[in-house]
Amino acid sequence: MSVWEWLCWRRSDREHLKKKRTVGPSFTEDEELKHKLGLYKNNKIRTTKYSLLSFLPKNLFEQLHRLANIYFLFLAALNFVPVVEAFQQEVSVIPILLVLSATALKDIFEDFRRFKSDRVINKLLCRVYCRKQRSYTDRRWKDVRVGDFVRLSCNEIIPADLLLLYSSDQHGVCYIETANLDGETNLKQRQVVPDLCPQGVDFTPENFHSRIECENPNNDLSRFRGYIENSSKARVGLHSSNLLLRSCTVRNTETVVGIVVYAGHETKAMMNNSGPRYKRSQLERRLNTDVLWCVFILLAMCLTASIGHGIWMKNLQEPVYQVDTETSPALAGFYVFWTMIIVLQVLIPISLYVSIEIVKLGQIYFIHNDLDLYNDQLDSRIQCRALNITEDLGQVQYLFSDKTGTLTENKMVFRRCSIYGIEYPHQENGENWREPEPSQSVTPLEVWMGSWITGVLRLEPSFVFQAKDVVPDPDLVRKLSCLCLSALSLGDGSSVASSLELTFITDFFLALAICNSVVVSSHSQPRHVVSRPTGLGLFRDLDLMLSSPSGFCSTRDGRGPSLVEDQEAVEDFSEEKTGDGCMQDVEDLNGNVESEQDGDDELLYEAESPDEAALVHAARAYRCTLRGRSAQTLMVDLPGLGPLVVQLLHILPFDSNRKRMSVVVRHPLTGQVVVYTKGADSVLMDLAETPREQAREVYDHIREQTQKHLDAYARDGLRTLCIAKKVLEEEEYDLWLKRQLLAESSIENREELLMESAQRLETDLTLLGCTGIVDRLQEDVPETIEALQQAGIRVWVLTGDKQETAVNITNACKLLRSNDQLLTANCGSKDACAALLEELILEVQRGGTSTRELSSSSTVGFVLVIDGRTLDWALQEELKGSFLELSCKCRAVICCRSTPLQKSKVVQLIRDQLGVMTLAVGDGANDVSMIQVADVGIGISGQEGMQAVMSSDFAISRFKHLQKLLLVHGHWCYHRLANMILYFIYKNVMYVNLLFCYQFFCGFSGSVMINSWVLIFFNLIFTSVPPIIYGILDRDTPSDALMKRPELYRAARTTQVSPVYAPSTFWINVLDAFYQSLACFFVPYFALEGSDVGDMSFGSPVNTSALFIILLHQIIESKTLTWIHVLVLVLSAASYFLFTLPFSAFCVICSHPTNLFGVELLEMSQPLFYIICVLSVVTALLPRYTHTHTHTEWLTEGCFQGYSPIQLSANNLALHNMEAHVSQPFFFRGVLLSDVEHNSSEDESTLLQENGFFLPHLNHNNPYFAAEPKPRQQCSL
């Protein structure tokens, strides 16, 4: 083969891999297929970043992506140039070597952990078919390849993505648990590829001669497109229900066999393994700006020194010491410029970036271990998945929340229903609903007629309910009790006119029982499947009734058509003696309670959503019990009729676009093909059929009454669903089935074809009724939302529920207040939407509510409620500005009937257009998009799996945890990190300016008066640890005060009250650093003026004073001082003396001549040295101490403006029961207010002192703020 042919061959291979994937047996004799299989990756995984050979170059390459590292590497190299050399050459490389080495060690440790994990996984064993031995042999996971046949047993983990070819289940079903993949613990059902081989017979890989064509690897867990083509060229469509995903676990199935289609890093699990999320915080972006200012300051200093040295050289005449007079002043100034770059390099904070990472890890540790954020019921604590945006929690301005599962429990209980236009209110339901205590035993509940005994329905492991949550409605029970008396009713003709209602009731509960994906199992049996056919002898009379003509009569209370006119009719039916086993059926309905309970209590229903579980639960309460499920059949009990086998023809699963789910079954009584559909009322009501002339009045009445009931349910805050059905002719079903199979076997445009096929089937539906499900609020949701609004956070609710339901829930959670004005935006066209938005803007402007007043509880505000269709138009480019203007003027916005895409667009609009910090919180897969778009995404580990959690930056278990996460931890993290950054910049500028000041006295030559080793270690060792402790442990305000006064959160965020990290604070710190450096330099200068001390003797008190000024400056700025702070500060000061004194005494030739022998020892033995240090420290720190004093007083007045001391005291602002037990503080500086009720006649300061409170730096003219600092017992970090 020539080179050209080989290149063409490789190019054709790449083009084939781009289009689709062809899979066949790995032992195939087809050379072309074998070649294609060899192109695919094996199953070995490697998540490590480095190897032994690639570590050094790759790690250096990654670290040099940081501009700061490049900058210091450049300076180290520059110091090797003789004409600009400032320090000893080996000294200049120490900082960059320490930073690079520390980061490299961290990367080695992390990568070694990944290596060990990979090695354990790759060495796992599985059974793979070997053609030579004609049996399944053990093989390591890493040796599995595409095309291998893998045999798995129950409870084994799936090693690669397998196409399911065989299951020991006689119906070809396999159950898997996807907890390792998406966190969901409920079982998923997978199906063997149909028409491949007969089930019940062992699968032989040798006989598999089919070819699989499927899509290329992707990370979509819910999608798999392809087809399998047998030797006769017949194709069978493949979908996600045929695919077993890597990392999942086989459950409730003895044996399965599959062929590997994706292996290793091409599996869906590995393609979704993106690792920790990385986001840049707002503070980091601000830091980059300030670092640029530091660069400008550095360049200004160096340029000044360069010009000054040139002028000095030009004016120098007859020097008394050696000077290079041959170099021109301009060139000498150029050399000095680069020398000063090396000398003043500390001004750029290289260690700050490393310190920030350490501080954030410490902050995450304390957040992770906060007991207040721990859920003992779920044994769940907060998860911090994004490691670098903790400070953004303290800057949130807009919060976007889902409703179901986020504000509510997402534990659904059947509350009410409407069938045939008649409402059944179920008054007892939900009134006493509560969580069962772990030790509480549940007894059977007897309701009307004595036979409706409901036991405990256990839904493990996802949704757990009690059967007593649904108490059957007596009227509906009475009507269902006549189901077994159909022959009697036909015999005397007394109830023929009501047979249509009975049909509706039967179909309604049958739909509730079978229109779902619930898996049925029990403790004694892994799953309940249909194991025996059921004859229709018991149902002949019912079949006759259901097929008889329909008539209608009205009840006495006027509620609509009725099956039985009064209670006496039921009693007559029960007392009358009839043949054909009818009375035996009544006894089956009313009797044998004990055996029924024994059978039902063992049923385990595993549902994919709480809604499905609630509906199946409700059907079972009416004795329409789902007994078993297989791929083709369902077993359902109807009241009084016994087990009923339903042939399952097709399932159209729920999706967010269609907003409905359908099952196609063959009715066991009539033999007709029936479609049962459940879904959102906004969709199903539009899909209802137009009735024939003779039945129009009846169907119009049903539809009208059902709509009234839906509106009433929504006003009560219930989640609503509509139930409908459609009867298909055989020819109509056959035609639809052909198109459906064609869509399922398509690879291109498969989703679009499936959508069209489903929409073609789900038309002209017969409306059966609707359901109302209650979903109560989580605990403390109203209090949490109220606190967030007081903190200045605008709360929006984005939900897919009906408008009435959303408004009801928001009213219950105090987002909508009694004095708020509701603005509703429901439009039928884009033009109408534009006009309405302008009208609403004018209405809000007439209201005159300012933005600052929006969170005030006493101010009349506006709340905008907008539906999904109107929101679609409002988000278009032409109307985006109007919608944004209106929403900014409203106190809150409620978006109803919104899709996941709309949610993300709303968040993106607010984030980009207003430039504010956004936070999105949700619990389901439909919230993932808005969670990822927001600056901070929070997932709630609720009842809808872990998709939201896995896509989030932080994961919590309850909505109420947001209050402490934002108001306390967010506030602390932002304050700590902002102050630490400002402190870092301050100490670098202060120290560098000492060296710069000295240049005015040494001809701007780049000389230094400090030992070069001490100069390098000053920032790397002597003053590096205290800022880290400061950033992790400091608290400006106690947690109780932050929780009880949410206004402090807003005060810290707005620059009008507390400019924590505003441009002004940066320049104030820089100016203060310049002043302190001048004081530190000139106090020793004037004290030693006229003496014969050398430059090193002058530099010793300057450097020592600078150390104490920097350390004491941190004490002044710290709001909390613990023994940890004191220990670190003492060790930092001690390390300086422990290094300089021995270094001066014993290292005679180290760094000569900048390290003269015994200088430090001589200086520190003289009293003048200590007098100079004390005067320098006092002079330098006095303005900072005064500024802190006045700033704290001003902050107190700004935060609590309008509150008297007595009012503040009554609001329970106190410091007690601090959560994190790290240390016992010596003092706590901040705004601390007593939680003791004061009497107006008592002296407030005395009360404060008695309770251990202190208020330093406050207005001493006010006796309330005159308390002396006093240690607080039981006060810890």
Automatic annotation (TrEMBL):
It is an enzyme of class 7 (translocase). Its main location: membrane. One of its GO terms (cellular component) is phospholipid-translocating ATPase complex. GO terms for biological process: phospholipid translocation. The keyword Mitochondrion does not apply. Its EC number is 7.6.2.1. This is Phospholipid-transporting ATPase. It comes from Nothobranchius furzeri. The gene is ATP10D.
